[in-house]
Structures are given as structure tokens and as C-alpha cells.
Amino acid sequence: MTCILHISVPCPLRQLFDYTSDLPASQWEIGTRVKINFANRLCIGIVMKISEITDQVEITKLKAIEERLDDSKLIPDELIQTLLWVSRYYHHPLGECFQTALPKLLRTGKPAELDTESWWFRTEKTADKKIGSKQQQCLDLLEDYVDGISQSMFKQYLGNVSSSLKSLETAGLISQQQKAKLPIPSNELNLDLTLNQQQQNIVNSVWEKHDHFQPFLLEGITGSGKTEVYIELTERALKANKQVLILIPEIGLTGQFVDRFKKRLNTTIVILNSSVSDKERKQAWLLAKAGLANVIIGTRSAVFTPLINPGLIIIDEEHDSSYKQQDGLRYHARNVALIRAQKYDIPIVMGSATPSLESLYQVKLKRFQLLELTQRAGSAQLPAVRLVDNSQANPEHGFSDILLKAIKKHLDAGNQVILFINRRGYAPVLMCHDCGWQAKCKHCDARMVVHQHRNILFCHHCGFIQRLVEECPECESKSLKSYGAGTEKVEQHLQKLFPETPVIRVDRDTTQRVNAFSDLVADIKQGEARILVGTQMLAKGHDFHDVTLVGVLDTDQGLYSADFRATENLAQMITQVTGRAGRGDKSGEVLIQTEQPEHFFWKNLIKNGYKKTAESLLEERIDMELPPVSNWAVIRAESTDREEATAFLQEFSAQCHQQASEDVLILGPVPAIMEKKGGRFRAQLLLSSAQRKPLHQLLDRHISVISRHKLARKVRWSIDIDPVDLL
Ligand SMILES: Nc1ncnc2c1ncn2[C@@H]1O[C@H](COP(=O)(O)OP(=O)(O)OP(=O)(O)O)[C@@H](O)[C@H]1O
Ligand SMILES: [Zn+2]
């Protein structure tokens, strides 16, 4: 034994574990992976401290590590520091934070080596005899690429040219070398776009601070050209030899977004989203760490990508709730990104047409600098928005005459129409006309949703599936009727009402297959689909220039929700979907069908827009001391035994009360709004404080005691800091 390694282990325990190594301390670095035997199984841990002493057991009883996996540290210091912060802030075991942050192949111990392939380079030699046309094409292409061309780039651009390359090599005209495999860049660069004055000013304001930590909130109305601002900023950072990390929400938008970057920037761009394979994810992570990838575009967990030359972090659609992980380590990527930008001392730009109240509050506190784009880019104008009283809707198909006429008018003009309904499936209620029976999930406090295409009843909360019944299970009556509408029903009615017009549906059900989403988007762009029915997947981020009408159906439930964020979310969703109309040269129109055309919320949003609406919502939060003004933590517990979940939280609450400070309010425990889900009863305890510190101190003091309580092992429980979803 020559040194002791203090190791972070992927397990729920909140401590490091000590092992010995027969290498001297000088040969170890923090951030190196090791294989260890932990509780009789092999697992991968991360070295967090190196010393000569242990306070865990007698030194002689310590186990030795099984294997050292990296020659030097895998995880850079900055990322380790960030994860230590994450573990502290979210009160989550460090070992599990590493699990979230590392690509799967690295956390399961695969070698941290880059995949390589053959790269070809032009030699000094000139051809002394005439060469074949394929070979000439290869040489011509090499003229454009001083850094060489990989085997896969050749294949992509020229088809199979292996034998030509071999001949050129034999003739001494080109040489090859094994180098890291890189993603293939676009070969149709399109560099000509001039930013308008507002865009240019924003780029300048951000760039002025390029060597400092400075958070910016870029509030730019829909279609104002935020993406172009990101591209220009990225270009500036690239010119300064810096890397740029860009986060985008999880709504299948990556393809279009990345295409725009690839076409405008001649650089190595890697992608980290859910459609990337484990192998590619590992490669992208290592390329970023090595500084071989200059732009990293990814969804939530990409926020943990290591950078060697960081220059800028960008978060698109910063208000999007997919940035908050809803299980395990419940981190918010915007929060983590801010910490990373601070550690790197670089600017961070958070953009949205509908900023979160969290970020607007930071602007109010002067912690974020506000940048605004108030006009649509190019010649596009914001669409006109009107409310339509739902009572005029046809009871059969749910559309009002006004909306139907508008659809017809826009189709006749050769344009595309979006119908937005934020509910997938055919109908949310199946009911017996005779006895009143309703199809409910036997595992959840929720109704089963009718999915007619698949002939099933489907619980959207736990995934439980049943065959669609034709007869009431209670009274055997055949008069079952579905109520309400989802995307399937809307699609079906529209197809009947407009038999000549192609209708497509974009929701989670039609986009499950790999590439299904990008295929649908391609159909839309080419104008093949004329009526587009979809959920929020269709509402955000897209730039379809021929869409001139957006119809919004049935969104009133947002007005009555028990969640205090519901109106904020509704205002964001409506503003985003509204923003899909009129993005090209043609002007757009939006019709919102509502039960409550007189409701203050609608009047305010339509008359005053998102910005004013958000301001008044923030004033309400300030008056009522709700987040983001106060700080919340929710302790959740669930169990198959209804009493147990509550009993555990009572225990938790009692613990906290023992030394409660007046600064932290403890509310509950209360049953969750949907108490039963997936066969488990759920309850929650809410902790709230005006200052963040006392809340965190309270949790620090009690968590380790609580986690050893006997009930803690019987129930599933979790801590959610800054919860976004209280249902
Ligand atoms: N300076 C410019 N000149 C001409 N066209 C522009 C300019 N900037 C952006 N555009 C075009 O305007 C459209 C909208 O831009 P972009 O998609 O960047 O907006 P956005 O603010 O990101 O939109 P949203 O938030 O609604 O998704 C795009 O088609 C884009 O190419
Ligand atoms: Zn269910």
C-alpha cells in the first residue's frame, strides 16, 4: 500500500469510500476512473482525493482498487468543481451526479480513447502522367481542405473512392494518417446573411464582454432572428479560437437547428441529443474535451460536456421545461450552465421569445443583462391574433364556422395551416351513456385516453395499456361515447372536412420512429402537407415560411390548473405557437378558440403581448412571495402503502422542526395532486424560504439523519430543489 484513494462511487450514499493503491500518490490525479469492488460487485468510481490516511476503518482492512482505468485524469478540474456544486445544491449523492454527467460508455468503464479513421492529405508531388477522372475529383476536393479529408467525408461527398485513393497513394500524390473520427461537415456552405441593426447591436453588446462572466437574457419576439444572432456570436468565438456550447430543448428540433449552423459555419460541430448512439456520444464528449470539436450542440445533459477552450455558452428557448430533469438528479441545465460560465469566466446568452419568470426576475435584480429584439427579421410581420368563442363551435367536430372559413381561405391561397391542440390521442374521456362509467387507469388517479389508431386505451401517466372496449364493463351497454378531443380526432375531422387536402399529425405517437420527425418536417417544408395538426412539438422553434394560419383549440385547462406556473406556461405556449404564423413574406393570422373569451388572461395576452403579461405575472409572484421570489424545495415520497409515504414525510418534517429556523416555512406533508400514479401513493412536503441559504442549511443538517431512517429504505423519496412541476 502506498496511498489511499478517496473514491466517489455510484450509489445513493453521501460519502466517499477509501481504497488503497500500490502506486505512490504522485502518480494519481483527481478525476481518474478506477474499477473497484464495492459491496461485492465491480463498479466504476472516480478518484476525488489522494492521501495517506483514512478515517473509515483500520488502514490494513481497506480493500485495494481492482484496476486503474485512465493513465491521467479523465474529468477536468472545472467539471469536477461543477459536479461538486451540483451535488451540494441539489442535495444529491456525488456518485450519482457523475452518472448523470458522463456518457454511458465512459461511466461503464470503456477506454477513454477517440475513435480514429484514415485521413488523406495532398503531398508535394505533382502528377507526372494523366490520371483518371475519379482520382482527379479526389485531388480537386483535397485542394479545398488543408487539414485533410477523412475516409468518411470522401464517401459522403464522392461515393466509394477507395480504389482511387489507393492508386493516388501508390503514385505518391496523397498520403494517409490515422486521426480522430470527426462528424462530417456540410459541403453546401451558405454564408451570406447580413444581420439587421438590432441583431448587430446585440452581437456587439455580448462580444464586448467576451472575456468575462456575464449572463445575458436575449428576449426576442418569435421570428426575430435569435438563431442568426447565436450563429454570428459563435462565429466570433470561433475566430478567437474558442469553443461554444449550445443547449437546445428536447423537442426534436435539433436537425433544423444544427443544419443552420452547419451551413453557416465551416467548423467541427458535434451533436449530443437523444438520437445520438452511445458510441457517438462518447466520441463527441472526448472531441470536445480534446478541443477537436469547436461547437457542441445538445439537449439538457450536454451541459456537462468538458471544454478545453471555452468561449461562450448559449441556451436557446431558455424557458423550456425540458431543461429541468424530472427524476434522479433533478438539475436545471440553465442553472448548471450559469455555474459553468462563471467558473470559466465567459458570457452566457439565454434566449427566448417567452423568457421564464425566473430569468426576468434576475433581470429585475440586475444580475442578467437584458437584450431585446423587438421586430421580426427580414420582411416578416407578427400575425394578427383573435379570440373565437368556443360556444360557437360545431358540437360534432369542434370547429367554429369562423375557424373553418379561415382554414379554407388560407388553403385556397396556397398556404399551410397549423392546428394546435396540446393533447395527443383521440379523446381524453371514454364514458358510458347509460350508467356513467368512465375508463380510468387502475394504477393512477387518471382517465384512460382513447387511442383509436392503435385501438387501445392508454394511460399517459404510467403507460398502462388496455384494448379499447366496445361495451361498458359495468352495465354492458353498447353506448360508449368519447368526449373531448386530441390530435387524432382533430386530424380525422379535418380529413373529412377537407378531403382533398393532405393532413399530417405531429405528436409523440407519430414521431417515435427514428427520423420520423425530420421526415415529417421535410414533408412540411416541401409543402406536401398542407394542414398540420400537432401538439407542442409543432409549436416551438420551427421556421415554416408558408404557414399563414394557426388555429388553437381547447387550451382552457391551463386557466384552472392547481399549479401556480400554469398561466406562465400557457402564455408561453400560446405565444410560441402564435409565432409560427407569418414567418415568411406572407402575413399571418391566429385564431384561438376558447370557452372564456372574456377572461382577463386572454385579453391581457392578446392586447399587451407576452412581455406585459409576464411582467404582471411576476408582480403577482412578488406579492404572493412565490418562486422565483422565494426559494422552494419539495421532498417527495411514494409507496404502495398510502400511510408510509406520508409517515416518512412526517418524520422528515419532525426532524426539520427540531431545529427549524424561522426563516424556513415547512408545509405539509400533503398528498400529491395526482395522489396515485403507477400503483404508488405519492405525498410531498414543501420547504420555502425567502433566502436560499437557510433552506439549504436546513437540508444539509437533516438529510443524512433522515436517509438512515428505517422508512427511508421502504419508500422512494427524493429532493427537488426549485421544482418546476408540482403535480
Ligand atoms: N438579418 C436577417 N435578414 C434576413 N432574414 C433573416 C435575418 N435574421 C433572421 N432572418 C430569417 O428570419 C427567420 C426567423 O429567424 P430565426 O429562426 O433565427 O428566429 P428566432 O428568433 O430564432 O425565432 P423563434 O424564436 O420564433 O424560433 C429565419 O427564416 C431567418 O433566416
Ligand atoms: Zn396509469
TrEMBL record:
It is an enzyme of class 5 (isomerase). This is Replication restart protein PriA. Gene3D superfamilies: P-loop containing nucleotide triphosphate hydrolases, PriA, 3(prime) DNA-binding domain. Its cofactor is Zn(2+). Belongs to the helicase family. PriA subfamily. GO terms for biological process: DNA recombination; DNA replication initiation; DNA replication, synthesis of primer; double-strand break repair. Residues 464-630 form the Helicase C-terminal domain.
